[in-house]
Amino acid sequence: MAPPQSDSLLPEKSSPAKVREAFRLSCFSPTAMKASHMTPLRPRASEAAVLWGPEEPFVIQEVQVEPPQRLEVRVKILFTSICHTDLGAWKGENVVTVYPRILGHEAAGVVESVGEGVEDMRAGDHVVPIFHGECGDCAFCRSDKTNMCAVYRVDPSKSVMVGDGGTRFSVADAAGERRPVYHFLNTSTFAEYTVLDSACVVKINPAAPLERMCLLSCGITTGVGAAWNTANVTEGSTVAVFGMGAVGLAAAEGARHRKASRIIGIDVNPVKFDYGRKMGITEFVNPRDHDKPAHEVIQEMTNGGVDYSFECAGNLDVLREAFLSTHDGWGLTVMMGIHPTPRLLPVHPMELYYRRVAASIFGGFKGKSQLPDLVEKCMHGDDRINLDGFVTHELPFGEINEAFRLLQQGKSLRCMLRL
């Protein structure tokens, strides 16, 4: 069902609850219901933050968003936040080579309309986009050994839709001709409206606060899941987290939930230590304060090394330190950082007889089938994940360039942008 084209029921500045209710009414009022059966879905004008080249300021401009095609969903984004992956893409790292492009992959919103064949969602549903999709039908999705999907897995180089290889965004050039605007990480959430493959949209409990569920699109799920699913941190164990951004602190939060006895945070930015105390970090190491490598400091602190380490910096030298900080014989290092460098792993094969390395994508969660349960744990669990602690700044969408500046300068964990 398509809501009417006017957004007059959506106040520019109102409480999140009022915005969601206004959108629901716009979808399901008698006028809207009648219009949805009589009028084909049409393109929508949408405000978006368009990136025209690496490290250029985002341009807030109007783009045209096409209707969803088969197995696609058009979503009105209400909240979006900025991840270090977005920052790397803005810099031109991680195979971002086509412009103009709409970045963004951490968000929450409401389904505006669905394409043919979409049966698990309808207009008005509360949803979270995911960059690492789940079709539910391929061999990967049917396996309990992986959260990969044959078709909708994360691919930084992908810039078009699966269905027809085209884009759903366009912008008028100086001559009035429409030119494509490309997609990013299956999501493109830096826009008022976006079109996604239905495999990359998760329906969640409508009572969940969208302004916090936004965080489950990437960072928090990735970190918590790395501790729960990939490492399976055990009670009483010791943990080291290298890189105390949002993903690293989410790993610490996951380890705290698993009742790890010691959680050591390693970062060169002392501001992060204040954030870490709220997430269960028990001790801190700033490598710049020591005249020896961080792994030697940690080995001395823990009588031989930690049981689990998490590399969240996207730096191979840091990965090496995380690997050596674990205990000889059983130590496990989980890699979560995005590594743009062409360098290979800094590990000799013989070293893997004594310590292990694993990688974690989206925390090992299958997005469509398992993320709704994580939402419920965030809402009703006895020891809920501290989502509020990750949001250090909140800004209107038009100030997205300031939000990127804050992240680049290490002054924020997550800056929540409200559309």
Question: Could you characterize what this model shows?
Answer:
It contains twelve helices and 17 strands. With 419 residues, it is α/β, with parallel strands linked by helices. It folds into two domains: 235 residues, Quinone Oxidoreductase, Chain A, domain 1 (Alpha-Beta Complex); 139 residues, 3-Layer(aba) Sandwich (Rossmann fold), CATH 3.40.50.720. Strand 1 and strand 2 form a beta hairpin.
List low-confidence stretches: 1-14, 27-38
Judged by helices, strands and strand pairing, the structural class is alpha/beta
Work out the helicity level.
25-40%
Gross morphology: globular
Number of helices: 12
Strand content: 15-25%
Counted beta strands: 17
Average pLDDT: 90
* SSE pattern, N- to C-terminal: HHEEEHEEHEEEEHHEHEHEHEHEEHEHE
The CATH first-level class of the largest domain comes to: Alpha Beta
Topology overview:
Layout: H1 16-28, H2 30-38, E1 44-50, E2 59-65, E3 72-81, H3 84-91, E4 106-114, E5 126-129, H4 139-142, E6 169-172, E7 178-181, E8 193-197, E9 201-203, H5 210-213, H6 219-230, E10 238-242, H7 246-257, E11 262-266, H8 271-277, E12 283-285, H9 294-302, E13 308-311, H10 316-324, E14 332-335, E15 356-359, H11 367-380, E16 391-396, H12 400-408, E17 414-418
Parallel strand pairs: 10-11, 10-13, 11-12, 13-14, 14-15, 16-17
Antiparallel strand pairs: 1-2, 2-6, 3-4, 3-8, 3-17, 4-5, 5-9, 6-7
